[in-house]
Amino acid sequence: MSDLYDTDVVTWSDYQAMLLRRVAAGERINDLVDWENVIEEVESVGQSQVDAVKSLVINAFVHDLKAAAWPLTPYVPSWQAEARLFRSQAADTYRPSMGQRIDVARLYAIA
Fold first, then answer.
1. Of 22, 35, 57, 85, which has the highest C-beta tally within 10 A?
2. Are 52 and 102 in a shared domain?
3. How confident is the model at residue 54 (pLDDT cuts 50, 70, 90)?
4. Which runs of consecutive H residues, i.e. helices, occur in 25-75?
5. Is 17 inside any structural domain?
6. Does residue 38 lie within any of the structural domains?
7. Closest CA to 12 of 44, 34, 36, 31
C-alpha cells in the first residue's frame, strides 16, 4: 500500500477514505488501512494550517517593515494594504490551538 502512497497519493487517499468509512461502519478491515501514512497525513493537515498562518504573518511583517524602512516611496500605501490583507487572512485562518506552535517574535526576526 505504501507504493501507491508514493506513486499516486490521490488514488491512495480515496482508497484510504473508503477503508476508513468501512472501519467506521463496523467492518473489521483494520489490516487493510495504511495506518502509518494515514496518521502522517492527518498530522500534516494541521501542520499545513499552522504553516499557512506563519507565512501570512511573516508576509504582513515584511510589508510593514518595508513601509517603515522607506516611508517616502509611493509604494507605502500598497504595502500597508497588503500587510492588512495578510493580517486579516491570518486572523481568519488562525485557531486558538495554534498559539503554542507560533512564535511571533521568531516570525518577526525571519521577516
1. 57
2. yes
3. very high
4. 35-69
5. yes
6. no
7. 34
Residues 52 and 106 in one domain: yes
Question: Domain total for the chain?
Answer: 2
The reply to whether 27 and 53 lie within a common domain is: no
Residues 60 and 102 in one domain: yes
Enter the C-alpha cell of residue 91. 486572523
Answer for the pair 47, 70: CB distance below 8 angstroms, yes or no: no
Supply 14's cell numbers.
480515496
> What pTM was computed for the model?
0.79
Determine the structural domain holding residue 58 and report its residue range. Answer: 48-110
**Which residues make Cβ contacts (< 8 Å) with residue 82, sequence separation at least 6?**
59, 63
Q: Do the Cβ atoms of 65 and 111 come closer than 8 Å?
A: yes
Which residue reads 511571533 in cell numbers? 104
Measured distance CA(81)–CA(69) in Å, rounded: 16
Question: Do 57 and 106 belong together in one domain?
Answer: yes
How many of the other CB atoms lie within 10 Å of CB of 61? 19
Q: What confidence score (pLDDT) does residue 6 get?
A: 87
Q: Please check the confidence at residue 2 and state whether its pLDDT lies above 70.
A: no
